[in-house]
Amino acid sequence: MTKEEFKTFWTLTYPNTIPLSHLLKKDYAERWFRIHSLPDSKRYAESKNEWKILLERQNQIITDIFGENEKILLVTGEYNWDESATFNTDEEVVFKPYDFILLDNIDLFNFKSEDYDKGDFYKPAFAETIWNLNQHDNLLKEIANDNVSAFFISINKRVIVAPYDGGIDFVFKNIQTKDFYKKQYENWFSG
Predict the structure, then answer these.
(1) Interval 97-111: pLDDT, tens
(2) For burial by CB atoms within 10 Å, which of 93, 98, 114, 180 has the most?
(3) What is the C-alpha separation between 55 and 49, in angstroms, rounded?
(4) What is the pTM of this model?
């Protein structure tokens, strides 16, 4: 996928927002839901057993939704990026296996002036990869520790999977698909 193809895909599929995962909950509330990665809504894993539970849960639900060998996009970004800065995919070891394509700067002030200041920019990037069970565990751990931010998109299934430090947010292609998975994983919701 080229930079232009990504831009077209995003504009046609998610026209209400920009590729920042924390905006999805608000901008696609009717198709969104969240699960927690640990029992009792615990936010951070503190033992080998908790890491095992977190990775098993995340891999189970993502594989259930994407399937094995699903071609996906990995999306990340950097705030206030300028041409002389090193992009986070160059600095973070966890991003080394992926071949990122940089997208154009997004002027956050022009996007939502009530939330951002003039001069606030976001520089997104994406990489094509494949989803397979446990293949992205290192990345999932770094996200769960709040060291990096990234999310996955299945182009074929029109679903965004956005892990964060506590769980995973999902945006489905329609309400019916969301309701199906919400019912399947209702035990993993916050109390």
Answers:
(1) 999 999 999 998 899
(2) 98
(3) 10
(4) 0.92
CA 138-142-148 angle, to 5 degrees, is 130
**What distance lies between CA 186 and its chain's CA centroid?**
20
When pLDDT is averaged across residues 64-75 and rounded to a whole number, the result is 97
Residue for token pair 């769960």: 144
> How many alpha carbons fall within 13 Å on the CB side of residue 116?
15
Task: Give exposure, 15-31, as e/b (b: 16+ Cβ within 10 Å).
Answer: eebbbbbebbeebbeeb
From 74, 100, 97, 98, select the one nearest 87 (Cα to Cα).
100
Q: What are the Cα distances from residue 38, in Å, to 22, 26, 45, 51, 78?
A: 20, 24, 8, 9, 28
Do 149 and 123 form a contact (C-beta atoms < 8 A)?
Answer: no
pLDDT digits (tens, 9 = 90+) for 115-170: 888 888 899 999 999 999 999 999 999 999 999 999 999 999 999 999 999 899 99
Q: What is the distance between the terminal CA atoms of the chain, rounded to a whole angstrom?
A: 40
